[in-house]
Amino acid sequence: MNTLISIEGVSRRFGDVTALDSVSLDIRQGEFFALLGPSGCGKTTLLRILAGFEEPDAGSVRLDGADLLAVPAHRRPVNLMFQSYALFPHMSVEKNVAYGLEREKLPRQEIRRRVSEVLETVGLAAHARRRPHQLSGGQRQRVALARAIVKRPRLLLLDEPLSALDKKVRAEMQLELKRLQHDVGITFVVVTHDQEEAMSLADRIAVMQGGRVEQIDAPVALYDRPRTPFVADFIGANNLFAGTVSGGGLEVSGLGVLPAPTAGLPEGAQALLAVRPERVRLGQGTLTGTVVDVSFYGGVSHVALSVPGHGGHVLVATQGPARVETGTEIELGWDAADGVVIAADDAAVENGAPV
Amino acid sequence: MTPSPAGRRAAARVATLGPGFAFLTVFLLVPLALVLSYTVFRRGRFGGIVYEPTGENFARLADPLYLDVVLGSVRLAAVTTLLALLLGYPTAYMIARLPGRWKAIALVAVVLPFWTNFLIRTYAWIVLLNSQGPVNSGLEALGLGPVELLYTDGAIVAGLLYAYLPLMILPLYSAIERLDPQLREASANLGARPARTFWSVTLPLSLPGVLTGCVFVFVPSLGNFVIPELLGGGRRIMVGNLIRDQFLKARDWPFGSVLALAVIAVLVLLLFAQAWAGRRAGRNG
């Protein structure tokens, strides 16, 4: 796939705060890309730079190889669906949607045709004459989406597109966004702090933290093979153990040698072991813990165990109802292949673990 | 017996609203009713009224002499309001977009003139505009003067504008400041140049503030009688001067009341227009 957007060494400071610290990433033509991270990680600043509302202090942004930063916001082939929707309150739905096309000085006939087409697509044809305040939150979002895609941008930016919606509308909108992206073939970039939103929507995710990109990968790879302690901790639930590579496992102080896939790492290297709760088995293993909490979620149950020598609790996910009770002492363990070892610089291990 | 919750709420309402209502009733509504009642009676010889009903007070209003004064006043007040809007909007717009601390400083600067006495400030204009004043000296130095500036309609408008410009800026500021800055960004994002964004988004959404500012400037401009006297030199009589003269000099209370009623009628019409337009604009917000 061709690269659509190429971001290189982009930095932005606000006073003493570094919002973006030399960020580089490529977004491919036609993909659904997510910028994921906690608030303050710089994702919104990056979005505003792409839209042209903000300028980087250093670095370059290219679209199809041409310098995007030289183009003023109103001339960029980039449209944004605002988190707050930012619909014009004094205009009807169709006026809101037509606004961007009118700026292109298109013939009236064509504007009318494209507006009604896009309103059909988002299922709001019947509401064309309404004002934004007469619509529900979900409907307003559809208007915001229609207003952005009717311009047929090269790049569509979506700022926390699902966060303001309730659970049911959210699931609907999620499917609709994916369908739409498939149908119109526009490159989508979604900015979110919500990993479920990113994981369910995106082809690839850039996890950001403290103004830096931690890892860029497909959702499954991000979940299965986190490459930094932050990603291991941030994406999904994980049991994290910091230690040193020793005798085919990871020696963790207070717990002994834990099973870990340490092949390729030198003896004595500092590393972080991450084991997903669903990979931990109860009943046999290298550790012994006491059950402190059992939560039943229908399909799965979560069991929290306190293990002497380990700072936090070890979390175990089991299918269906758990067959243990609070207070039980039980053995637990995992196969070495089920863990992920992150050989990080010392500082990263120190900061990243334990949870 | 303890009072019911509803009774207590009613008592609380009377306690909070009561004093204000009482004050307004005694000092606004009662005098207003008196003035209105004067319009239908004959004038007393030395002021006051004689309780003989008559319609001739209203008939006098149609006299071109007085009609000209009323219309001329409306025109001067309207010119003042328009100039205040043209000067005030960019000012309010810039203040609304200043960073927080500068905003506060700029707003203080806008209301600063109110800290000095109104008469003194108006006299300052006489000093500025008279034939030996700094403005004329400057014009003379450039070979353009002297020009008669003082005691003209222009001087009256300048004085009114100076006095009431802050009343335009403040409501405009609050209307513009309230606008979601993301609406401007959305407009740019959809391809609008800054000028287009202003005409299509910022201005229509700040219309309620425009209307409020216009009423705030027009109303006191129309009724003002100090500025026309000091800066107009008595050559231009505005309706405010006329009303005062009817009460204090001509001792014709009934006709003074008719003139006052005419001004009130114009203002009430204006307020209705503002409420109507404001509601229309409000429905958009």
Fill in the keyword field for this structure.
heterodimer, A: 355 residues, alpha+beta, six-stranded mixed β-sheet, five-stranded antiparallel β-sheet, 9 helices, 19 strands, 26% helix, elongated, disordered C terminus, B: 285 residues, mainly alpha, MetI-like fold, two-stranded antiparallel ribbon, 3% strand
Characterization of the model:
The complex is a heterodimer of chains A (355) and B (285). The radius of gyration of chain A is 24 Å and the shape is elongated. The longest helix of chain A has 18 residues. The two termini of chain A are 38 Å apart. Chain A is of the alpha+beta class. Chain A is built from nine helices and 19 strands. Chain B is mainly α. Chain B has a single domain, classed as MetI-like (MetI-like fold, Orthogonal Bundle), CATH 1.10.3720. Helices cover 76% and strands 3% of the residues of chain B. Chain B is built from 13 helices and two strands. In chain B, a hairpin with a 5-residue loop joins strand 1 and strand 2. Chain B is globular. The interface between A and B is medium-sized, with 25 and 21 residues.
